[in-house]
Amino acid sequence: MFEMNQETFNKILLVEDNPGDARLVELYLEESDLFQFNIVHCLTLKDAIDTLAEGGFAAVLLDISLPDSTGFPTLEKLLTSYPEENVIVLTGFSDKTYGLKAIKTGAQDYLVKGDFDSEMLSKTLKYSFERNRIIKRLEEVQRITHIGHWELDLRTVKLEASDEAYRIFGAPADVAFNYELILSYLHPDDVKVPQELFKILHEKKEVSKDLRIIRRDDSQRYINVLARRVMQDGKIVSVSGVVQDITERKQAEEEIVKGKERYENIFNRSKDAIFITKVTGEFLDFNPATGVLFGYTDDELKSINPDKLYKDITQRRAFEKEMLEKNSVRDFNVDFIQKNGAIRNCLVTSNVVVTAESTEYHGIIRDITDRMQAEQLRKDKEIAERSAKLKEQFLANVSHEMRTPMNAIIGMSHLLQKEDLSEDHRNYVNLIKQSSEHLLGIINDILDIAKSQFDEIEFEEVEFNLMDIIKKLDNMWKVQANQKQLGFEVKVGQNIPKIIVGDHLRLNQILINLTSNAVKFTEKGNISLTLYKTNETDEDVTLRFEVSDTGIGMTEDQLEIIFEPFTRVAKSKDKLYEGTGLGLSIIKRFVELQGGKIDVKSVVGKGSVFGFELTFKKSATVPVVAATKVLEDMVIPEGQHVKILIVEDNTINQIVARKTITKQWPSVHVEVAGDGKIAITKFNENDYDIILMDIQMPVMNGEEATKYIRTQFDEPKRSTPIIAMTAHVHVKEDQKFMEYGMDDCVLKPFKPEELFEIVLKHLPKKNQPSNTSNNIMSNEFKNKSYQFIDLEYLETMSDHDDHMKSVLLEMLLKDPIKDIKRMKEDVAKKDWDAVSDLSHKLKTTFPYVGYTALIDTNKAINDNLKKWKDGNITTNEIETLLPDMADRVEMFFRQALVELQAEFKDMTQGAA
Ligand code: ADP
Question: What is the DSSP secondary-structure string of 635-681?
């Protein structure tokens, strides 16, 4: 910062080559009140410039006619090197005019040699000091305020600008500004601004404008230009003004605008309603989403009574209360009513805001109705999926439950057929057998449909002899068709591979279905089954099968729906066609799931043609599907003593299996175990050649028993063939029985030959003549074993004291059944506390009975009631679960009761 103080600036430089003139100036100064200044005298310009480098000169008295420079250039050269110096030019009398020019060039003043005295010199110097100081201060002010000054003389087109103006433009001070140069700094969008300003100046004295410049380093700055005109003779002769760097201010303003825009954007675009209300709830300001939420126009909202927006006014009161108490609410649940009456479920978050003028509520409302609905949909979907699973489970269970008695019916009628029967009785038995086989077919169909709806079907890939299948169909349908006096023929095309790979059972099922329909819906004429090749590659062959008939046919409309489950369209006044309407829908799924297509053409009264195409892998090897043997071939080698253990809980099925085997093979020794546990006891004491094992059994199921045998026994016992005997179709398809460690599987109800075939298949595995058969009876005798009860605990508790044991047994025979009955009554009354007490009481009784299923079921009642009390399951669930459980407790106990009675009888009779 420049400050003219006399301690620092205590020298005056006199540049004068004329010794006389120089001496005179020195004398004047000594005389004057500026005597304290030291005078440094130079004779040449070069000398002067060198000396100025020392600094500290308050003024330079410069003669412009020097030995090394004369005239103006002298001053210019000096000022170029030292633009800040306070120069007073000394001119000769003859070149007086130079004085003015010198001032314009940058000198502070001038003196005409010979024309000034001591006092004038002093005054001139003092004025120059003062002026210089003012100029310096002005420059300082310009620098601090970033305001530069400029002036444009329109007559000379000369542009003068202060240092700060140069600094603002980032322009070097040594390249003087001119109008064109200034234009080159302007932002392309602002180059027209100066002209516009001139235009305005014709009307107005003063004009101001913000514009942008681009500095040479490419940085952009904002400037404000203020211009004033100077008039002469009614014309503008010059324009002067200031230029100010306003970049910082502009940027701050832009930030504010941007920030405001940003907030306005959020406000306007927010999907959530944003609002400001009075404390009394009236709207002061709100965003467009608020209008959308409530369905009112802005004006309506501004004047609405807030109560009208709440579905339940108590919610509003609760909201107000919380705002009053806590000054804010977060996710406060409110049901608002829209103008159209619809209810929107919303979450309100709000704060109390106190300003100088008022207190307001500021907040956001989030409409969660759709989200809740989506959530509900998701839950519904989950429930639907769960119930689909349940349905599947249900169907599997139902099929199991139905197949078990079917096994008994079919098996028994098969056994009966072998008896010596009267003609009538034989007919009855045949009818029973036919009907039950028919019923079994329907059960299987329903199961297939259920499974195909879950895409659960897995198709086998085995080699089979296609011609065998066709031949069998031919044999079978020729007879059936004959009975209706219909012709039946099979036509097989050329070059069809005999052995192919695929699911032969499903193919058979499809063909049987189509041919049986053809026979069923045809009264006269012919049925034909045609087979030909449509495509063949190295690996595959594609075959088309067609079944055509000359039957009743169908209309176009009927054709559209026959593949839907349970559709039956055939109507006849004099004939009732049997069927479930499931067959076609099942086989359609079968064909499609194997990548094929099924089609049908039909003319009413003329007949129908059903066709489908399937691709099979080709095979070069021999067929693996063994031809089904006839019963007579299924013999056990003479002299071979075979022992079979049947493990089965259902008494009828026990009989069916035992009788079926002994009818065919009277020499085979068959034993029966009622559950896995009994089976293991027997197995431990005897050697069997084959075990036929039911899977679902009480106490110990077939899976557990098999595992036990496979792990707890030594060879060769542990490898005894075990054949699963189940009504669970899934087991066969999942090949689960293999996982359990079983060797094979017979599906109940079974055809005798199926059972025999499997038994024979596994017999060779263990084929030593048995020598333990004689012991069987005695062993059985020694180990009195019960199917359900286990009295080990009772024995221990009675300390093997027979009297004590009989007392306990008597108690078991009388008391628990009363408690169970009461428990069932309480379940019916939904008196859960009473149920809980009784179940608890029974918990201590049942271990004496030792029947696991009974103990477990009662424990489940207890556990569920506890869960319900803890709030982990609903009352609804308890109400569905418990009746069934109580029934089961009763059932299990009744099973146990029979054995308990037997034991008690044994004891008391023994004692007697
Ligand atoms: P179902 O035969 O057990 O009733 P399907 O699904 O096999 O069930 O057949 C559905 C219906 O399609 C039949 O009830 C019958 O109305 C019609 N239909 C099927 N095959 C024929 C055919 N060959 N000729 C005439 N109608 C047929």
Answer: -PPTT---EEEEE-S-HHHHHHHHHHHHHH-TT-EEEEESSHHHHHH
Structure tokens at 140: 């300082």
Instruction: Establish whether residue 515 lines the binding site of ligand 1, counting it when its CB lies within 6 angstroms of any ligand atom.
Output: no
DSSP states along 802-842: HHHHHHHHHHHHHHHHHHHHHHHHHHHHT-HHHHHHHHHHH
Backbone angles phi, psi at 796, to 5 degrees: -60, -45
Distance CA 15, CA 63 (A): 6
pTM across the whole model? 0.38
Long-range contacts of 235-239 (CB under 8 A, 24+ apart): 236/154, 236/198, 236/201, 236/202, 237/153, 237/154, 237/155, 238/151, 238/152, 238/153, 238/154, 238/155, 239/151, 239/152, 239/154, 239/198, 239/201
Give CA–CA dist 351/593, Å, rounded. 62
Q: Which residues contact 593 (CB under 8 A, 6 or more apart)?
A: 452, 455, 457, 459
Q: How far apart are CA 280 and CA 277, in angstroms?
A: 8
DSSP class of residue 700 equals S
* Residues of the chain scoring pLDDT < 70: 1-7, 93-96, 392, 396, 450-456, 572-576, 620-633, 638-639, 729-735, 764-785, 799-800, 910-912
Does the C-beta of 562 come closer than 6 Å to ligand 1?
yes
Model confidence pLDDT, tens digit, residues 275-302? 999 999 999 999 999 999 999 999 999 9
Ligand 1, atom 13, lies closest to the CA of 568
Answer yes or no: are the C-beta atoms of 246 and 272 closer than 8 Å.
no
**CA separation for the pair 7, 58 (Å, rounded):** 10
Does ligand 1 lie within 6 Å of residue 463's CB atom? no
Q: Rounded to an integer, what distance in angstroms lies between the CA atom of residue 908 and that of residue 417?
A: 44
Mean pLDDT of the chain: 85
24, HSE (Cβ side, Cα atoms, 13 Å): 15
Residue whose Cα lies nearest atom 11 of ligand 1: it is 568
Q: How far is the CA of 605 from the centre of ligand 1 (A)?
A: 14
Q: What is the pLDDT of residue 677?
A: 92
| Angle between helical axes of 72-81 and 45-52 (0-180°, round to 10) | 20
The per-residue pLDDT for range 191-237, each reduced to its tens digit, is 999 999 999 999 999 999 999 999 999 999 999 999 999 999 889 99
For strands 722-726 and 690-694, give the pairing.
parallel
Which two tokens mark 282?
Answer: 């009236």
Find residue 14's DSSP bridge partners. 41, 61
Distance CA 161, CA 142 (A): 12
Task: Report the separation in Å between the CA atom of 450 and the middle of ligand 1, taken as the mean of its atom positions.
Answer: 20
CB 570 less than 6 A from any atom of ligand 1:
yes
Question: CA 72, 73, 74: angle at the middle one, nearest 5?
Answer: 85
Structure tokens at 181: 């140069």
The rounded distance, in Å, linking the Cα atoms of 609 and 547 is 6
Which of 486, 488, 512, 517 should be mutated for ligand 1, with most atoms under 8 A from CB?
517
Q: Name residue 330's amino acid.
A: R
Residue 517 Cα to ligand 1 middle (Å): 6
- By most ligand atoms within 8 Å of CB, the mutation choice from 524, 559, 577, 584 for ligand 1 is 584
Q: DSSP of 188-225, one letter per residue? A: GGGTTHHHHHHHHHHH-SEEEEEEEEE-TTS-EEEEEE
* Ligand 1 centroid distance, CA of 516 (Å): 9
Question: Tokens 């009888």 belong to which residue?
Answer: 905
Residue 783 has a pLDDT of 34
Q: How far is the CA of 435 from the centre of ligand 1 (A)?
A: 20
Indicate which atom in ligand 1 lies nearest the CA of residue 518.
Answer: 23
From the CB of residue 178, how many other CB atoms can be counted at a distance below 10 Å?
Answer: 12
Closest residue CA from atom 12 of ligand 1: 562
- Whether the CB of 170 sits within 6 Å of ligand 1: no
